[in-house]
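Can't paste images in this forum, so I'm doing it all in text. The chain is below; anyone willing to post the predicted structure tokens underneath?
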Amino acid sequence: MTDDLREQVHAAARRARVAADELVLATRERKDAALHEMASALRTRGREVLEANAKDVEAGRAAGLSDGLVDRLTLTEQRIDAVAQGLETVAGLADPVGEVLRGSILPNGLELRQVRVPMGVVGMVYEARPNVTVDAAGLALKSGNAALLRGSSSAEHSNIALVAILRDALETAGLPADSVQLLPCHDRASVSHLITARGLVDLVIPRGGAGLINAVVQQATVPTIETGVGNCHVYVDASADLDVAERIVLNSKTRRTSVCNAAESLLVHAAVADDFVPRITAALQAQQVTVHGDDAFARLDGVQQATDEDWDTEYLSLDIAARVVDSLDEAVRHIAAHGSGHTEAIVTSDVASARRFTARVDAAAVMVNASTAFTDGGEFGMGAEIGISTQKLHARGPMGLSELTSSKWVAWGEGHVRPSS
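Text version of the structure:
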């Protein structure tokens, strides 16, 4: 059975390679037309997707999925329209393929250009979120890549419906249907076969919980971009406007708790703690948020005493860890010890403090007087995103079209030969 599954995954990768060889020659016009066709098909056949998704949501609730995971799994007419709009936004973006990154003419007349090229075959391993199926397919197509999608069994019906629609749209637009393929999801061995298919797959991107990401990163022999979990902090500085601080904390925490850019920790400077701690605690509790606090917070009614585990937890729920710090430097040290390198925010009226915080905090995105919720490919003008990278090599932060490309050097000569040394 394992050998059969390996061959199934590898056969899909070989079909993807054939599709990628065609996509690398596709003009922007053809790719954009396909993206618009995909968006139109999703809207036209949205009922099919919703019916399939209802099966997944019902099964997920029966299996005891958390409210956060059920929210990630759920599709609505509005969410389907949003992913369709994401495809249309991607179609409106510049095509990265062929972009000249740098170039020169050598003294001997040899012309050098470094240009963007597609990765080739890109594998995605992800959990619960069927919108990722569409986002990944659209970004891969526009950047000239073929996508191998390995979603979770919890979203099986949704993903099957979505990929069928996308493949039909690709054929209608005259591009290979195998540009987007869905891999088997019931046997975890399919992930192993994907992430070790070196020579068949050019890049793997895991997107999901810490367990999934760590397993892929540690076991993969295919190059991998790590998209980390989001233990995001909001630090309220001594000079913060407390009205602004309250607004940012509430938006960062409660806008949508199930996403990786939601704030999971709150740090408050001691200079404003007497005023802000009771104020923000009441505001969070009014939004049904459970506060897990240090001694300064735990004195208040309804606050749970924080444990060591709380500082490292990505709740993905209406919970937040909170503590008072004596200085900006202590806040930075706390973030260094417990943060996940995703997004960190400071609320301050002091430019020097903002500069010190942004320079010292090691994260993919740092917000100054803005919600952590803005770390998002769409908000950053990338259209859809394929994930948020928390590593430092190749790509960091929201990954859009450019992050799905590599580069090659092209040298133009006129019979140039290199002299003997």
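The first strand starts at residue 100 and ends at 105. The mean pLDDT is 94.
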